[in-house]
Amino acid sequence: MLTFQRFALGALQTNAYVVVNSEKTGAVIIDPGTADGALMRKLDGLKVEAILLTHAHFDHIGGVDALRSKYDCPVYLHAAEKDWLTDPAKNGSLRWAEVTPPVMTRLPEHGLTDGQELELIGQTFHVKHTPGHSPGSVSLLVGDLLFAGDALFRRSIGRTDLPGGNQDQLLRAIREKLYTLPDDVLVLPGHGPETTIGEERRENPYVR
Questions:
Q1: CB 127 within 8 A of CB 107
Q2: How many other CB atoms are there within 10 angstroms of residue 90's CB atom?
Q3: Using CA of residue 98, residue 99, residue 102, residue 107, what is the dihedral sign?
Q4: Bridge pairing between strands 186-189 and 145-149
Q5: Tell me: the pLDDT tens digits for 3-36?
Q6: What is the Cα–Cα distance from 20 to 26, expressed in whole angstroms?
């Protein structure tokens, strides 16, 4: 059985996740906003197979290069935001100068595309392109866990007023890609507490 641990990191308390296989031998890191010590301690003795990015805003990528170098693992990101890793203006770190220095990382080793299936830690990660918060936003489904990035939150949705945002796109992606999942799928968002697909389909005031 897969296990995961959430780490709320950085000035914006962005959720990073470490997902560990049932054998407790392999791990995947999702959205490391910082190279946090507690997160790295969780990885002791594990083979880190990949860093998966739901999107490339600065608060989700600040720890990428430190972790990529330490664990010698590839980074995956949708091609629409590939160059955001190297450009502080695009990843938003220049806009939020009061909370972060400029963030720049090396380019990702691999792209992510809608419908792609990644075989990692003995599990299949299903990639769902869910743009609207940002052009390359993806949600990652593995088993009954959905890592939703900043697309869907508990009783809320990602903001769409940043460069590349589009509210109509986001609402359509949630309805067509996420609300079609089973009720008991656990939604693990980029900020805030977890929820379920069933709860959000019934209670989310932004998407009916």
A1: no
A2: 19
A3: negative
A4: parallel
A5: 999 999 999 999 999 999 999 999 999 999 999 9
A6: 6
pTM, two decimal places: 0.97
**158-193: buried (b, 16+ CB within 10 Å) or exposed (e) per residue?**
bebeeebbeeebbbebbeebbbebeeebebbbbbee
Find the angle CA(145)-CA(116)-CA(22) to the nearest 5 degrees: 40
Domains, in order of start, for the chain: 3-203 (3.60.15.10)
Cα(75)–Cα(22) distance, integer angstroms: 22
pLDDT of 166 higher than 90: yes
Q: How many CB atoms lie within 10 A of CB 75?
A: 22
